[in-house]
What we know:
- With about 270 residues, the chain is an alpha+beta fold.
- It has a domain at about 45-115.
- About 30% of the residues lie in helices and about 15% in strands.
- The strands form 2 sheets. It has a 4-stranded antiparallel sheet. The protein has a 3-stranded antiparallel sheet with strand order 1-2-5.
- Strand 1 and strand 2 form a beta hairpin.
Amino acid sequence: MPRKALVPVLKNPFKAAEKIEFNIPGEIAQATGVYEEAMRAGYDLIQRPVKSVNIEQIEKQHLKKRMTVWERIRVLTEREPNILFQNWGKNLDGASLVTGILKAVIYPEYVRNVTSKDFSPGTFLSWLNDRMNFELRSASGLIVTFFAGFLDMKAKTLRYANAGHTHPIMMREGKAMELPVSGSGLGFASSVSYIEQVVVVRPDDVITLYTDGLLEMGCADGCVPIKVSALFERVPYSPDYHRRLLEAALAESGRADFDDDVTLVTARVL
Length: 270
């Protein structure tokens, strides 16, 4: 009787499911509360990029004597980065993967060696552009945009530069203001100088960075993108600000879901 070829697998059939308890130290055991639920949600968010990778895909790379991208990030960084799925949409892995690669490069090579008083967004983007030209030298059709800013709470200023990213919105007393300075995306050209701009911030100002997936739904069919200022002016700041922005964008577009991934980052000045 012919023997079947043995195929190595990564899944351990004897490994018991890991159960992690999220409890407040010193607290008497009781029903799960808001704290435990928030801690578990955060843990699941950090684990999701790695656990979402199909085992067959990992095995395929190993049979080719290659590491997966996640394994390379672990090996090439001094500490394992947290790569979060802080997006809404269908292309979550792509956005989170690019974020992970940038973090793996940025922290050990630049951020760790620069103090806040010496940080220049324009100089940083010029360095990152040169670095991405090297990292992406064998890639084609990859577009990387980047916004770099330093919010100085002592001076009450935001100093920023932009490498092709959508213009952030600053809400002040119900009015939306775009932060318009922009330059070319990363990796398009070598030796790029990025212009810096400084804007004075006030208490209760709300600054939001977003990706174009928030506004462009159905644009492959020739749609008119949502007007960003009008969208933000309709949604006052609240604890569920991001959710309400997403709902407002979908309602205006008349669509049930986003076509592209959406990332939102908001800072409120106190």
